[in-house]
TrEMBL record:
Nudix hydrolase domain ranges (all copies): 132-258
Gene: nudC
Name of this protein: NAD(+) diphosphatase
Cofactor(s) the record lists: Mg(2+); Zn(2+)
EC numbers for this chain: 3.6.1.22
Highest taxon of source: Bacteria
PANTHER family documented for this protein: NAD-CAPPED RNA HYDROLASE NUDT12, NUDIX HYDROLASE, NUDC SUBFAMILY
An example Gene Ontology molecular-function term: metal ion binding
Length: 262
């Protein structure tokens, strides 16, 4: 596909994304040869990727942009409901790059201001240290027990929904070891038959979610109270509120529902 002079502009204030109103309650990423909002001096404009023959560029603003007849700011998570999937994913990548940029201004070894050398690499001009965007890897685990699955409510959830056991990968362990450890730590249960399901970038702010299916192998539920407020096995007929469609956890639950219906 030929490149055009127009760019897709991903403009963020913290986790709020600037969208252009198209009428009838629909929105789009601003597109044009010039940025939709004035770029102030010393603002870095990042080249994120290409999409539909257009360059995707991202930058941050220092204060929220008031809603106008043309533009509105919407949270990145909420933008999933309004944008084509490819545009939402590009917005997620833009958010991750901007988060990395804000948090890597100075060399962690000697304190010298870092210099951007490539789209995802900075180098310290004093000691030569190079830094790249850090990605925090976490596992999601769908635990099956007969005709039910394990669902939990974490204390840090913003809402009443239940989801899958999740936790961050630790240094020196495999993903499968992380699965077994997290389920054991958070619920007291043992699992077996751990199999890979899929993965998803999770730009809140810079994660990679890796999903696994596992079978119950033994134990009684004993919740890690500082992490979870509730947890139990549920059949398809008594499911609690579930996570939103944008998450890998929901995709895994929907997969189980489809399989259990056959």
């Amino acid at each position: 596909m030929n490149q055009t002079a127009e760019s897709l502009w991903f403009v963020f204030y913290k986790d709020e994304l600037l969208l252009e109103k198209e009428g009838n309650g629909t929105f789009a990423i601003p597109c044009g040869e010039i940025p939709p909002i004035l770029i102030k001096d010393k603002t870095t404009v990042h080249n994120i990727t290409t999409l539909e023959g257009r360059n995707c560029k991202a930058y941050s603003v220092s204060q929220p942009i008031e809603e106008t007849e043309q533009y509105a700011m919407i949270g990145l998570r909420a933008s999933y409901e309004y944008l084509p999937l490819g545009h939402y994913q590009a917005a997620g990548k833009a958010h991750e790059i901007l988060h990395w940029d804000r948090n890597s201004l100075f060399c962690s070894a000697c304190g010298t201001p870092m210099e951007q050398k490539e789209s995802i690499m900075k180098r310290c001009p004093s000691c030569g240290r190079e830094v790249y965007p850090a990605i925090s890897t976490a596992v999601l685990v769908l635990v099956r027990k007969g005709d039910s699955i394990l669902l939990v409510h974490a204390r840090n959830f913003k809402g009443r929904f239940n989801s899958l056991v999740a936790g961050f990968l630790e240094t020196g362990e495999t993903l499968e070891e992380c699965v077994a450890r997290e389920v054991k730590e958070e619920t007291g249960l043992d699992v077996k038959n751990i199999t890979y399901f899929g993965n998803q970038p999770w730009p809140y702010p810079s994660g990679l979610m890796v999903g696994f299916i596992a079978d119950y192998a033994g134990g009684e539920i004993k919740l890690q109270e500082e992490e979870l407020s509730s947890g139990d096995f549920y059949t398809r007929d008594n499911l609690p509120e579930l996570p939103r469609k944008l998450s890998l956890a929901r995709k895994m639950i929907d997969w189980w529902l489809e399989c259990s219906h056959k």
